[in-house]
Amino acid sequence: MPYKEKDIEKKYYSIGEVAERFKVATSLIRYWEGEFDIIKPKKDKKGNRRFTIDDIEKIQLIFHLVKEKGYTLTGAQEIIKRDMHKVQDKAAMIQRLNEIRGFLTEIKNNLNEQHTE
Questions:
Q1: Which fold has domain 13-114?
Q2: Is the pTM here over 0.90, yes or no?
Q3: Which residues are registered as beta bridge partners of 42?
Q4: What would the pLDDT profile of 73-109 be if each residue is shown by its tens digit?
Q5: Would you say 33 and 47 are in contact if contact means Cβ atoms under 8 Å apart?
Q6: Are 51 and 15 in contact (CB under 8 A)?
Q7: Distance CA 114, CA 117 (A)
Q8: Are 32 and 59 in contact (CB under 8 A)?
């Protein structure tokens, strides 16, 4: 059995990497940081923000509420204050289902390509 190297996972992500992940501007991430108390990235000596996986998950929650569900910032803040864990679980489930859909679509496309060859 061949040796498989363990994937190296980053501990910190730059604001540019986070913005790219959500396909939004870095200014929106900075704005949300000011509006939502749950986003607290660490800053290095130069003042650059360093986001952890936990920070990214919280941004995912805000993104889900504001961009996907259409809540106002005030509405999203209220939901986060009231039922953060419930909404986090639901958002994580939706994200996982979207990943599964993408995987199944990829399989379907590969099968269609093989069938047409």
A1: Multidrug-efflux Transporter Regulator; Chain: A; Domain 2 (1.10.1660)
A2: no
A3: 50
A4: 999 999 888 877 777 777 778 778 888 998 999 998 8
A5: no
A6: yes
A7: 5
A8: yes
Rounded-to-integer distance, Cα 3 and Cα 96, Å: 29
How many residues can be counted in the chain? Answer: 117
Which two three-digit tokens encode residue 6? 């363990």
In a 13 Å sphere around the CA of 6, the CA atoms on its Cβ side amount to 3
Domain assignments of the chain as residue spans, ordered by start: 13-114
Backbone Cα Rg of the chain:
18
How far are the Cα atoms of 45, 69, 111 from residue 64, in angstroms, in the given order? 32, 6, 32
Which letter does DSSP use for residue 65 in this model? I
The bridge status of strand 42-43 relative to strand 49-50 is antiparallel
